What does this fold into?
Amino acid sequence: MDRKKKVELYFAGYFVVIPIIFIVSSFLWRAMILNKEFTMVASDALSILGIYYLITSLICLENIKSLLS
It folds into this structure.
């Protein structure tokens, strides 16, 4: 597999697929099963997702740089 394709797969996995799975599962678990307030669930999930994006972008930046060089 060429390097550009690997970078695209990393991006799709870390920045699109995993966050969508997290948001859906978080809303299903906390809002539907635990009957928590929707705005509280949204606030918590988006806060966690923001931290995830910061950490993942820092880690993946180095991996992507090494793949492209």
The chain has a mean pLDDT of 87.
